[in-house]
Amino acid sequence: MNIQSALKLFLLASIVLVLSACSFKTLYNNADWVLAGMVNDFITLSEEQETDVDKRIEQLMKWHRKSQLPIYAEDLKEIKQYTQQGLTDERAEIIFSKFLSYWHALRDRISPEMAELFLTLDEKQKQELFQALEERNKELQEEYTEMTREERLEKGRDKMVDKFTEWNGELSSEQEALLRSWPEEFKSAHQDRMKFRLALQAGLKEILFNDSLSKEQEREQLIKLINNSEDYQTDEHKAKLVYNNKQAKALMLAFSETVTDEQRAYLGERLDYYSRIFTELAAED
Known about the structure:
Elements (H helix, E strand, L loop, with lengths): L2 H13 L5 H9 L1 H10 L6 H39 L3 H31 L3 H23 L3 H20 L4 H9 L8 H19 L6 H13 L7 H22 L4 H23 L2
Helix pairs in contact: 2-12, 3-4, 4-5, 4-12, 5-10, 5-11, 6-9, 7-8, 9-10
């Protein structure tokens, strides 16, 4: 499976892709089923493995609900203060750092669980896993090449306008123009991501098919691979990520200078709303 995609999808669903209280609560409360389905998309598990995976996911969800959601709820209150007072470079950096810390916490918690699952795979399941990964790699490349550069930029423009509208309410023509001009400021990292995927998958394959490793050595190397997956990025890829992060922060700052009092109030209400949802979810069993 794509390790980073699995983790980031779960984190993204928990923090960002919130469409309504009802739909988000339903999504979150069924995340165990979603995560189990993601595993089964790549590996045909035995009954014993499925039971083990279900138990591990259940424990992960309990940990995330009780330890992480309260953090998200409190941080949204802090982010609201920043947005109401006006974003600065320092405040934008704090917000970015918070989201990065969520990713690190989830990664560190889930890496031992993923390692244990990998350790239970037999030869047939390993072959199945890498065949599924190869097919997914081809799909991603085909999806990318099916669109022209201008089509990809236009898709990015539309997505950016939709997301900012979702959180700020109706945009002015000047704000929309600002957002639509920004995708060209980002450097394309698709091919870099594909190289990263292939390198990471090769690293995983090297560990899983190394018969000279003891179980403990294999476990340690798997956890290291997951926790330090950035080591498989090229220097050029890392440089692009740094550059694009700076552009994303610059966009936030530029847009914040155009926000009206009405939009600021709308955003504050949205942040309050989801802070409350996270608090309610954390209180559920």
